[in-house]
Design goal:
The protein has about 270 residues and is α/β, with parallel strands linked by helices. It has a domain at about 35-205 and about 255-270: Nucleoside phosphorylase domain (Rossmann fold). The chain has seven helices and eleven strands. It has a five-stranded mixed β-barrel with strand order 6-10-9-7-11. Strand 4 (about 60-70) and strand 5 (about 75-80) form a beta hairpin. Helix 2 (about 85-100) crosses helix 4, helix 5 (about 210-220) packs antiparallel against helix 6 (about 220-230) and helix 5 (about 210-220) runs parallel beside helix 7.
Amino acid sequence: MNSQPDNSQPQPQRQSGTSTGTGDPSQDKHSADVGLICVHGGEIRPLLKRLNRVRKYVENGCVFRGGFLEETVRVACVEARTGFARHRNATQTLIREHHPAWVISVGYSSGLSSDLKTGDLVMATEISDTHGNIIPVKCPIPGSRRVHKGRFVVADEHPMTPEAKQKLAESSGAICTDTVSLAAAQICQETGTRFLAIRTILDEAGEGIPQQAAGLMFDANSRAIGTALATLTRGLRQAGILYDWRKRATASSDHLDRFVAGVILRISDQLHR
């Protein structure tokens, strides 16, 4: 992180919160090319490391960052934590303060289709809730063997067992599930902001996920971390299971990073032609 941040980088105007950057917050602010919203920083840690001249502040419990990808592409990121309402509010703030041309919901997802393997990438063509309400998503990015396109379903919580995943797949017709991407899609639809949802598959349709690992991977708040640490004290087997899931999550984040970085650069190229 550069100790002398460039004031031309995207930094949203804020009325409250704790700043960890320097500079005058009353200065005129600049728009971002792309805004990213996720649950926690672990989902996009490799991508955050790509950014330079990063500025950061905290507002209403959400962590906002602004920086540059490859020196010229302005990227704004917000870690909104869990909760549908939190993601709606964080998306509203992201759009109001950063004015991104595109918003991308990114992070981990659970597979509902046997075609999806851990580390695969998924892009939404539409996002539904569990009541059958659907928002279409125009996704101009082509798919490939390990990059899938289809319907996402947003559930109240992540399905923990193969049986729960099968039931959700049958009721929704979706290929994967998360708990928040519809919130960002709704705000983008309301504001006329272009939107994508790009996620990486953490757990496959035919497997369950331990509760402690689920909390750490999908939530990563202090309570989830405390529960995971308590698991480590119960023996080598439990510690090994948790380590395996952390390793899996790290690899999935790496896949997401490479793909999303390419998408951001492609979007930026189109914006500045």
